[in-house]
Amino acid sequence: MNAAEKSTTLPESIGGVVDFALASYARRAPFYLALALLVFAVGAVVEVALPAAPLDSEQGQLKLIVFDYTSIFVDAYVIAAVAIGLGTRLTNGAPSSKRVAAAAAERWLPVLTVEILLLLVVQVTQPFSALGPLPDYRALVPITAPLVWLLWGVISLAAPIAALSGDSPMSAFFTGLTRAVMFSLRGSNFARLCIVAFASIVPSLIQTIVYDLLVQQHVPRPIFWANIPVDALTIGPVAAIQTAFALDFARRAGMLEKPPD
């Protein structure tokens, strides 16, 4: 994994890693907030293009799928930009936002591939996650939900690893995935992996709660207002936390390297 030759600026403690992530995000807040507006704009275009429909209808489910697959295209770019911004901070460098944007475009494809895989895994495992309607075998959900969250956390680490990898785009996808699994299997990283997993499910949790509230209040277009604004506001900070812990795991495994220019 790519990060830095000198890792002294990455704190050792869990709280320090989280603080590093959020402080790094704040340093480029105008750039990242502009990307958040892009995420919202893309979602707004989809909302205008498709008719409103209840979530439990066939049209509503189709619209949610379109939202999901459209969003990950722009989300992948945001994740790549945030990951590169954090990685370059560890080199004591301060490239312009324009350079970060260009580098993110180069790493967009492997990150997008990871995000598509993550979305497919989420769609298959969501009934076991306790986020959304409970299945008939709901008695098992208290057992399956934490395992599903951990699985999502493991795969989410692959995206920033792929973004910071110096490998070719296709190789970076496999590098990100294999190293995410390898780092997550280290027992010493378990508590930190739980932090990543929790951060990764927070947007889905908020979206579920907001959707239920909007439906109860009969707010028009609840699918859009419950999903797109939350995605736009959380994708960057969550990516920062995932990246910071991915860098931390790489350092603890002795695999911290200098990021590509």
Summarize the structure.
By secondary structure, this protein is mainly α. The chain has eight helices and no strands.
**Count of helix runs:** 8
Estimate the strand proportion: under 5%
Distance between the termini: 14 Å
Parts with pLDDT < 50 across at least 5 consecutive residues = 3-8
What is the structural class? mainly alpha
List the helices and strands in order.
HHHHHHHH
Instruction: Give the % helix.
Output: over 70%
What is the tally of beta strands? 0
Integer tally of domains: 1
Largest sheet: none
Anisotropy-based shape:
globular
Radius of gyration over all CA atoms, rounded: 18 Å
- Return the average pLDDT rounded to an integer: 88
Outline the structure in words:
It is a single chain. The chain has 261 residues and is mainly alpha-helical. It has helices at 14-27, 29-49, 58-89, 97-125, 141-164, 169-184, 190-216, 222-252. It has one domain. The radius of gyration is 18 Å and the shape is globular. It starts with 13 loop residues before the first helix and ends in a 9-residue tail after the last helix. Residues 3-8 have low confidence and may be disordered.
